[in-house]
Design a protein that fits this description.
With 495 residues, the protein is α/β, with parallel strands linked by helices. Helix 1 crosses helix 2. It is globular, with a radius of gyration of 24 Å. The structure holds NADP nicotinamide-adenine-dinucleotide phosphate.
Length: 495
């Protein structure tokens, strides 16, 4: 169900020379243009403080497109697309510079017919979020009167509940909530949206989607890379704030929420919030025994030597920042009771994968079946990235004259059959913001619920000194993460 983008507008990227713009935003816009999904009257203005002209800027973006675009660059398409790109040099900390930007944008309205509509994208350090919105207000660049002005904000939204609350209050003074688009790019991923179809479009799954039939649900988001060049950011956030507060809890909410009344922004967000609030049942006592944190030490990734986190560039040799978290959570609501949700995320792990595994309950062993060896629980695995697809494994008779069981799998691979079939998350999200559809963006209530849960964990951690490092690279994390499951008679499904 693809709706047409109708509104002409100018998209302004604060941070137009940054890494995210080069790797994700401009490729997303090129691919939207390639597929005819941008309005005719459209322009994108990259804002940066480096001295360069539009032509130099376009050259740099073209080089990045060659590397990162989903579609191969066609010269005739690039020629048309590049006409829509402009560069504007300014200091975002200097208030008067916004006046110049305003004049520049107004002139574009005259020549392009973009009608004063603006999509502001804050692809800069979070410390600038408040300053930019205040300046937009001061120069009346976000009035939302005869035209619309929307704001896309990158994560992280705050560092804890208090700072997120403050940021939300300040931004809301300038932009109404319905014009604020808080990005969690996981929500733009094709398989996350597919999760709703799998759940609510298949009687087989939705009828069994509760603690009477499901033994546990596991969500893993693991990376093989270390901290790379994001030392400052990561030291302050760790896996708790970088992954659990946003991506992991969003994934969990989509897996566990009640069916929404409709597939629209409000109905889906309402259900996600209701679920996220159930997490407050995981009080300090429960959290203490059910959350494992880790930090990688020195070792090898395959045959290559890998530094310990504490030896990485820009990281304190005494750092206690966690690069791994595993959690056992309960929702305690009617659907899920005390069934455990296991979540884990980490760096320098054995596999790069994001997936959800639903482990169904095993059948009681009646006498006859005891003759069979190797019965496995049914597993539904939803793979989100890098491989996208769904598999379902079940038991069947091993062919032959003897009784025996073999575990077989039905597999649907979403990204191996058709070339370029899955749009990048940022394509979908930018297209939705242009269409004014907030379904795949995070509401303030969701952020509030997730930060209160994360703050509880951070407070408990502050009282205890971790024993770091506690896992080797190229593994599945600390052994305590396995114990978390074996204590309940479960195990991580690492396939
Ligand atoms: N990169 C990613 O993969 C990624 C992923 C998720 C979220 N994010 C979030 O996205 C945002 C941007 O990240 P990034 O990696 O693209 O950062 P980055 O590469 O460091 O880029 C920062 C941008 O901000 C601009 N800037 C900084 N100070 C400025 C000033 N005083 N005046 C004008 N422009 C200024 C820089 O312009 P100059 O180059 O001209 O100095 C540059 O364009 C951050 O909030 C980050 O948390 C990034």
């Amino acid at each position: 169900m693809e709706r047409k983008i109708v509104s002409p507008c100018v998209m302004i990227i604060f941070g137009g020379t940054g890494d995210l713009t080069h790797r994700k935003l401009i490729p997303a816009l090129y691919n939207l243009f390639y597929e005819g999904n941008l309005p005719d009257s459209f322009a994108v203005v990259g804002v940066g403080r480096k001295d360069k002209n539009a032509s130099e800027y376009k050259h740099e973006l073209q080089a990045s497109l060659e590397k990162y675009s989903r579609y191969k660059i066609k010269p005739e398409v690039w020629e048309q697309f590049s006409k829509k790109i402009q560069y504007y040099k300014m200091e975002i900390t200097v208030s008067e510079h916004y006046e110049g930007l305003k004049v520049f944008l107004n002139e574009m309205d005259e020549t392009l017919g973009t009608q004063g509509n603006r999509l502001y994208y804050l692809s800069v350090a979070p410390s600038f979020f408040e300053m930019i919105t205040k300046n937009l207000a001061q120069y009346k660049m976000a009035e939302n009167v005869d035209s619309w002005q929307r704001l896309i904000i990158e994560k992280p939204f705050g560092h804890n509940l208090e700072t997120a609350n403050y940021l939300n209050t300040e931004i809301s003074k300038v932009f109404p909530q319905e014009n604020i688009f808080r990005i969690d790019h996981y929500l733009g991923k094709e398989m996350l949206q597919n999760m709703l179809v799998i759940r609510f479009g298949n009687a087989l799954f939705e009828s069994f989607w509760n603690s009477r039939y499901i033994e546990n649900i596991q969500i893993t988001s693991s990376e093989t890379v270390g901290v790379e060049n994001r030392a400052d950011y990561y030291e302050a956030s760790g896996a708790l704030r970088d992954m659990l507060q946003n991506h992991m809890l969003q994934l969990l909410a989509l897996v566990a929420m009640e069916p929404p009344a409709a597939i629209d922004a409000k109905s889906i967000r309402d259900e996600k919030i209701k679920f996220l609030r159930t997490l407050s049942k995981n009080n300090a006592e429960i959290i203490k025994g059910n959350i494992v944190r880790g930090q990688y030490g020195e070792g090898k990734m395959g045959s290559k030597p890998a530094l310990a986190y504490r030896s990485e560039n820009g990281i304190s040799p005494k750092s206690n920042t966690e690069t791994f978290i595993a959690a056992k959570l309960i929702a305690g609501n009617f659907r899920w009771g005390n069934m455990p949700f296991y979540l884990r995320t980490g760096k320098r792990m054995k596999q790069k994968t994001t997936k959800v595994v639903i482990e169904f309950k095993s059948l009681p062993e009646i006498l006859y079946f005891k003759e069979y060896n190797g019965m496995q629980p049914n597993l539904l695995e939803i793979r989100i990235q890098p491989s996208e697809g769904v598999s379902f494994s079940f038991n069947a008779k091993r062919p032959g004259t003897q009784n025996g069981i073999t575990n077989v799998m039905m597999d649907f691979c979403q990204n191996c059959s058709l070339e370029n079939n899955s749009p990048e998350a940022y394509e979908r999200l930018i297209a939705d913001a242009l269409k004014n559809d907030q379904t795949l963006f995070t509401s303030w209530d969701e952020i509030e619920a997730s930060w209160s849960f994360i703050d509880n964990i951070a407070n408990i951690w502050r009282q205890e000194q971790p024993q770091f490092p506690n896992y080797a690279p190229d593994t599945y994390g600390p052994s305590d993460s396995d114990v978390l499951l074996t204590n309940n008679g479960h195990k991580w499904w690492n396939t």
